[in-house]
Design brief:
Layout lengths: L11 H31 L7 H26 L7 H19 L1 H25 L4 H21 L4 H5 L14 H19 L1 H11 L1 H6 L4 H27 L15 H13 L5 H21 L7 H17 L9
Helix pairs in contact: 1-12, 2-7, 2-10, 2-11, 2-12, 3-4, 3-5, 3-10, 4-10, 7-8, 8-10, 11-12, 11-13
Length: 331
Amino acid sequence: MQQKSLSTKDTPGSKSELKAKLTFAGIFIVGVAVVFFIFNLLTHGNFLEWQNVKIILANMVYPSFMAWGMCFLFACGYNDMSWGGVVVLASFATGVFANMYGLVAGLIAGVLVGTVLVFINFCIFAYTKIPSWIASLSLAMIYEAIAVFLYRGKSTKALVEAPMAKELRIFGLLPWSLVVLAVGFVIIYFVYNRTIIGYNIRAIGGNANVSRALGVNVRKTLLWVGLICGLIIGITSFLQESYAGITTVKTGLASILLIFQPLAIALLADILQKKINIIIAVPVCAFLLYAVFNMMTLMHIPSGTLQEALLCLFIIVFAVVGQRGVKEVVK
């Protein structure tokens, strides 16, 4: 007698997995609601005011894009500490060209600078044997030096110092920033989860030698990572400049501070990815993280000192939890 074959979604394992994910989602939502209710009590009802929620939503958009870039970066097993310096230069380009030629020119300039610089980084990672964290620290200092040169140059100082015109900053404001976030989510989710490039990126992060033996071109895949991450960082820079209106020069590797919050978001999303797709988890984690810092601000906990110390503590905790069971050395 012919036996009826079972599809994957008909198997008990898949049903139980779906049930477990739905249960986790329910518990997660209830937990967040309880925490937010407590935050609201601690801030005397200010936390859940719509104007305050809008501040949280506006703040989470551009770090979500950088965190998505980090998802690709970590998936292939590499680190890049220079992205803060790249954001500064790409934000300069966005502001200067937007003020001179309009919003579209600013977008193209920011994306182009971000893409080129990050792609250069990955060319160095792919064609040399220098560990990525060492190479990227050196590149961060180079990008900071270029930013200082532009900031102090006689012919460029006035251009990079000028804030982006207010009428050009619509994509840093609600609801347009959320529209960009939604469009970016759809595209990035598809690339990460539904394309051969996305599969290959995750494959070389699991084991580059095995992937190479199976026919994956590791070097070519790394260059694809550089291109994808560069585009994401370029958009991040455009959104950051649109939100802040101006970007300050960072020296002495201070540009690395710009990646700390996205790093915390990416690490927390990595922890949750067993229950929820990491690309979906990023904006959720961004909202939660910025909600915590917003609550601390409302409670008059000083930023620049204690809040940053807590952020670093979060990063350590998230990294420790996320790296459980990982045996390979980080590249």
